[in-house]
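Lecture 7 notes: from sequence to structure.

We start with a single chain of 578 residues. Read the sequence below before looking at the structure.
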Amino acid sequence: MPAPKKGKGRAGGQSGPGRALALILIAMVALTGGMFWSGQTTPRLGIDLAGGTSITLQAKNQPGKPNAINKTNMDTAVSIIERRVNGLGVSEAEVQTQGDRNIIVNIPKGTDSKQAQEQVGTTAQLYFRPVLTVAAGGPTPTGSASPSATGSGKPGTAPSAEAGSGEKASGSQATPSASATTQGRAVTGALKEDATPAPSDSSGTSETPDPATAALEKRFTELDCTDPAARAAAGDGVKPEDPTVACGSEGEAKYLLGPAEVSGTDVDSAKAAIDQTGAGQWIVQMDFTDAGAKKFQKITTQLAQQQEPQNQFAIALDGEVVSAPSVRAALSSSAEISGSFNQQSAQDLANVLSYGALPLSFQELSVTTVSAALGGDQLQAGLIAGAIGLALVVIYLVAYYRGLAFIALISLGVSGVLSYTIMALLGPAIGFALNLPAVCGAIVAIGITADSFIVYFERVRDEIREGRTLRPAIERGWPRARRTILVSDFVSFLAAAVLFLVTVGKVQGFAFTLGLTTLLDVVVVFLFTKPVLTMMGGTKFFASGHPWSGLDPKRLGAKPPLRRSRRVNAPIEHPKEA
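Now the structure, written as tokens:
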């Protein structure tokens, strides 16, 4: 009976390496299959390797806030700009401060740089202001009536809007009244964008409400929003609590706006979505904070009682009206904007609403195109250096460990496949991009991975030097090697994690890659290197200590085999007496 138990135990022991190898093989096949299925067969490259656009923004002091430029506000602005750019689908934008008042935005190739520049460049605060008057974008002709909501000017696709409480409010969707060529969107429980305004009435005038002053009326009358320079300077130097003039984003309309009632910081979130009521059109959904909801409800209650265009509120960013919904009913904590949106325009407006409220205003200092030529040259040099280093490691392993070098090289190959597929999949998943520092981290990881193999091999060789045969040496050397490998990799991973947390920009790429490859080193050693060595230990080449196996007892200076000595009870002989 003892014999079958012993045989059963060996069979069970042999199945352990097979299970581990099957597990890592399944993981490799799954990752490789996922990489090809996703279509992302190469890692995403960073701006230094792929090229892209670099935008430099400089912070400006705002009226009444001479000390607004400080580290806290700059850090907040960096965070918001980064989210705005990433909201465009950019997965590896770099946003960081330079000095005490500049922000550098690097956008990799493959992104619509013009669209990103427009989103990043319009970085002033976001305000919701009631519309007092709307007119065509050009200057009002001499001798015409005072500023009014007349429709003289460009007809066409002027958006109208409807706002709602987030719940599907009852009531039919309204279209703009025959008052103005607006750039708003209409609202009935949802915000409705685009409708062609009807012609204005014969009078063509409406009374300009307070608090517009004569000077402001004059400024509004003379404002020419078809002039890009005049359009950009329309809202300069105006405090939130003061009325102002503003232009539509394309200059087709100009607005006389009241004091800001709600700021961008009161918007909790905004997103583009498909209307689920059956229209199947793109809409923008926005939610307000608790404080913002109270402000929004108060102003929309007042606006809902007004006539066109005084029932509109303008969403103004950097003195430019990006949308001007008209309110049909009092709103609460959320609203929907709908109309002639397409997916892109809905996402653009959602980005402005979500990430438009910055603690500072900025001016665009420069926009440069970054060539990938320099980064490509550096990458080529780095890859050559890595290849030379890998070749030296291979030569050392073959010369010193001989047959064991084969196991080490296969393990390095497995680690390389896992690293490559994971980095390729992380591109579309979390926006990971391979930049030059990340490549350096991968090259450094070759040494870390090879070091783990060497630790294990040396433990096994030490056991052979003590006089043990190969199979016991493999099993006895593993626990001590395992502890050393885990401690070493833990220190490397901890250093990578700290470096990732305390640094910004490209250095994080180095830290991320180093940490990833360190974790994969543990996986490969436990699930591949150790099982393969266990299986190889049963082959004649390794078990017999072939001179080219790297485990030759004679070359290692092994002691004679350890044997248990038995105590023999021999009779005691007494010396004969003379």
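The first strand starts at residue 52 and ends at 60. Keep this in mind for problem set 3.
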